[in-house]
Amino acid sequence: MKTQRNVISAEMLARQEGYMEEAAELNAARGEPVYALVDTYGCQQNEADSEKLRGMLRRMGYTMTGDEAEADVIVINTCAVREHAEQRVLGNVGHLTHTKKNKPSQIICLCGCMMQEPGMAEKIRESYRHVSLVFGPHVLWRFPEYLLGLLRGGRRVFAVEPSDGVIAEGLPSARDSAVKAWLPIMYGCNNFCSYCIVPYVRGRERSRTPEEVLAEARDLAARGYKDITLLGQNVNSYGKDLDAGVDFADLIERINDIPGDFLIRFMTSHPKDAGEKLFSTMARCEKCARHIHLPFQSGSNRVLTAMNRRYTRESYLELVRLARSYMPDVVLTSDVIVGFPGETEEEFEDTLSLVREAEFDALFTFIFSPRTGTPAASMPDPFTRAEKQARFDRLVELQNSISEKKHLSYVGTTQRVLVDGRDGEYLTSRTSGGRLVRLAGGDELIGTFQEAAITGSNTWALYGQLCQEV
Ligand code: SAM
Ligand code: SF4
Ligand code: F3S
After folding, report:
1. Fold adopted by 414-469
2. Fold match between 10-159 and 177-289?
3. The pLDDT of residue 470 is above 70
């Protein structure tokens, strides 16, 4: 599907630069440090957006803090994908009435996918009067303008006009890690899976140009990032809206050609667009991580059709075989929904049997959450929450036993890992397939590739010892 690419002009972005400078001057005139806090819910796309929000806040003179009481500006970047995430956000925003009472000048902002839902902005306007700024993902690039207006004493802002989405290049970004970087390559989704709200709140699929993506990848590699994750709701439909003659596999190949020692990861692929070209490219490109996250959602063909997923159980399992024929060591992870409206016991058993057959290394399991406005929210749903929970528990138990077995097979092997941080007494590191390896060692190893002898394992992690430095 070709969509209109709405690229924000350099001139409009330059105006935002001007607003950032003005805000920085206002803040400097206060003669004391000003603090900001950005709290993120949801997927990696939101994490990447929050890095941009922090980048803009820094340019406006703010120092980041983790303390709500100290913050002059609080931004909550929300997720709408399941009801539970929304309730957590609303609960936390409710609590901020106390911090605002103690610090009346505090500016509380809400942004992200949840704000784009019909009726949400109204609800905030009426019931959360301590919130001053509400904006959707399509106008994230205008954050400096909105915040400056409030710093000058302006009225509450609600910027949640419906939109098919935009591309805004060149926003500053304050990245959370010096080792791993998110690299959004496309935004939005055209798939309209019947349960999912993302296409409604994030707009249509739009790809960044290969030139923009490659320039950012080159910059990240030159700055020493060792792990670059290409992001999109549906990364492997990259380029379909461009006339650049570059598809997702071609893009991986071009990034692979950039000099440097780094890994290329990507999230998330849709089975309908995955196939031989992607797997053979992954196998050929030495920088491409041996990991594919390929959500299957259900093992029942009836449910897959009702979900509008556009593949079958059989074609999904065939894809898994194909991926493994090109990369026998590939780590395969997936997403699944339990309790889709009307899912019968038999259909749930189809999901269990697919999990047994595919033998995923790890699985992200979700209980269906009705999202207003999506087709699935109005489908008959005769099963109770307790019945769905019982199925969910059975599925988790099955997957845990598979993950445990898979992890055990690493014991006695040596893995090249990227050390990415520390968690208590252990360094944390990841294999090319993205498996967590806990290691003893000093912080100076963070950001380096190492060889690790795997000595132990459980369902969630591997344990290892450092070999010679590589
Ligand atoms: N674009 C990706 C894809 O198609 O696989 C994932 C997007 S979504 C942010 C992440 C996961 O949330 C989905 O794969 C699905 O399993 C789950 N999900 C989405 N909508 C849901 C809903 N209404 N209820 C429960 N889980 C949901
Ligand atoms: Fe949602 Fe489906 Fe799009 Fe993924 S592909 S974001 S599950 S509509
Ligand atoms: Fe949530 Fe929006 Fe991501 S709904 S999962 S934050 S795209």
Report:
1. OB fold (Dihydrolipoamide Acetyltransferase, E2P) (2.40.50)
2. no
3. no
